[in-house]
Amino acid sequence: MDVAPEHTFLFADLAGYTAFTERVGDEAAADVAVAFKSAAAHAADELGCEIVKDLGDGVMIYGRDAARVVTLALRLARELADEGWCLPLRMGVHSGAAAQRDHDWYGSTVNIASRLAESAGAGEILMSLETRDRLAARTCVSIADRGARRFKNVTAPLAVFAAA
Fold it and tell me: Whole-structure pTM over 0.85, yes or no?
């Protein structure tokens, strides 16, 4: 029996980037966004994940292993906060089926990961039940239940969890 490959997607962006740009100006804000994307690409590479694309002040990251992707999210949150130059991140992680075309990914799994990131607060990593279940005992991630939430263009409410 063939087992479908595991796909996990992480969307991460700089919380408050628009206000930050207004405060420090375009050049300084662009430098922070570029530095964030560089740090994300370096960390993703080290953990066997890949940047699918950058999204202005954010990134879309793909990994075959949910535990590695969540570890990546935690690492980015911790290391970039410790460095002091980076705005807090908003992140969303979801696992499931997806379709790849021309070096990009499509489907509801990708859409839900993006919606989770959009609903995350500054410094928050939100994940779906599907991602939480893939973590099992493989990581030392603290997980808090955030309850069921509704998302734009998603029919049923989704169970949401925060990783720390």
Answer: yes
